[in-house]
Amino acid sequence: MSTVSLARLRNHAIRRTLRRSTSISDAVNHLGFVQADPIRAPARAQDLILRLRVDDYQVGDLEQQYPTLPLCEDVLHVYGFLPQQQLVFLHPRPLSEHWQRFVDAHPSLQKDVLALVGSLGEAHPKAVEKALGKVRSQNGWGGQSSTTTMMLEALHRQGRLRVARREAGLRLYAKVQPDEKTRALPTATRAEGLCRLLTSLYAPMPLRSLQQTLRAVRGPIRPTPHTALQTLLKRGELRVGHIDGEDWVWPEQETEALMHSEAPPPQVRLLAPFDPLVWDRRRFSLLWSWEYRFEAYTPAAKRKLGYYALPMLYRDQVIGAANLTTAAGSLHSDLRIIHERPTERSFAQGLERELSAITQFLRLNHPSADFSKNALDPVGEPR
C-alpha cells in the first residue's frame, strides 16, 4: 500500500465521481444516490449535483423527467434519489421512534390517507388535506406541520406510498401496488447491499466516516452496522489502506486504478454542498486541508464562507468557494479564495467556462464574477 498516497486518493475520488453521462438514469446509476435539498441558491442540490455529470443538463430536468425514469425518492442515510432496484435493500423497514409514535397516534388517519391516495391515483398533499381536514401536529423539528402531509411522509418512509412526481418542488404520492412491493431479502443480504452502495458513493472514504454513515441508515443495517462491513472486508470486496495516519476504504476492484490515478485536467468546477465529493466533512478536511461548513442555517453575522457556498474545485484542489445569486436574469458570483487566487491562465479560463456553463444550466444571461477582498485561511477563518 506504500504506492497509495493522499494525492492518489484525492485524484481517484475526483475522477470516479465526476464521470460524465449522457442521461440522468446513467448518472444516478453510476453514483447510486443523489441527495435532495429544497434550498435553491441558485438551484436545488440535486440539480447542482447532476449538472456536473449529465451532458446538457438544465435546472429542473430531474423533476421533469422523473415520472419516466427508473428512479425513486427515499431515505438512505439522508433523503434523495436512487435507482429503483436499490429499494430491495431498504424495504421493508421500521419507522424511527418519532414517526412510529405519530402513526400510532393516528390509526384511522393512516387508513383514510391510504384509501384516498388509492382512489385518486396520484395525490397532492393539499388535496389530501382538503379532503380529510386541516389539522396541525408537531413535526420532528419542533414546529407544526399538516397532519395529513406528515402521514403521507410516514407512509412513504414505510414503503407503502411512493413519490409519483413533483409539482413545483412538492411531492405527489401514489400507492405502492402489489406488483411494485419489494420481496424481503435476507437481512444480511440487505445490509451488505447498503454497505456496497454507500462505499461506492463516497469511496475512497475514511473508515471512520463509513462506519458513522452506516449507523445513520435505518433498517437491517442499523442494529449491527459493522457486521456487513466486516463481511465485505473479509471477502475481499473492500480494501482498507492506512494512509497518512488514517484508515481509508474503497472497493477492491478499484485498487489498481487508484494506485495509478493521475491529477485531473485544469478545470474549475463548483460543487454542491451535498455533492459526494463534499458530503463527508472528515474526508473533505483530510483531502483538502481545510474545513468546509454549510452555513445556510448559521446566523449571517457568523458566516465565513457564505449562505450557500459552493466549494470550488480546480485541478485536484478545492481552493475556495463561490456564492451564486441571480438578479435581472443574470448570474452573479462572490468568490472566496483560500490563501491566494491561482495565477495560471488556465484558472481564469476555467472559471469563465464554469460560470458560463452554470448560466446556461440556469437559462440565464451572461455571468459576472466578483472576488472577495478578504482571503481566507485553511480553516475558513477571515484573516
Q: State the helix count.
A: 15
Helix proportion range? 25-40%
| Rg over alpha carbons | 22 Å
Largest sheet: 5 strands, mixed
Mean pLDDT: 91
Strand order of the largest sheet: 11-12-13-14-15
Tell me the β content: 15-25%
Label the overall shape: globular
Q: Note the gap between the termini.
A: 39 Å
Which regions have little confidence, pLDDT < 50, spanning 5+ residues? Answer: 378-383
The tally of strands reads 15
Supply the helix-strand structural class. alpha+beta
Order of helices and strands: HHEHHEEHHHHEEHEEHEHHEEHEHEEEHE
Describe the fold and architecture.
The protein has helices at residues 6-17, 24-31, 45-51, 61-65, 87-90, 97-105, 107-120, 125-132, 147-158, 187-202, 207-215, 225-235, 255-259, 281-288, 345-361, and strands at residues 34-35, 71-75, 79-83, 136-138, 144-146, 161-167, 170-175, 205-206, 238-243, 246-251, 268-270, 310-314, 317-327, 330-337, 367-371. With 383 residues, it is of the alpha+beta class. The strands form 5 sheets. Strands 11-12-13-14-15 form a 5-stranded mixed beta sheet. Strands 1-3-2 form a 3-stranded antiparallel beta sheet. A 3-stranded antiparallel beta sheet has the order 8-10-9. Helix 7 (107-120) packs across helix 9. The radius of gyration is 22 Å and the shape is globular.
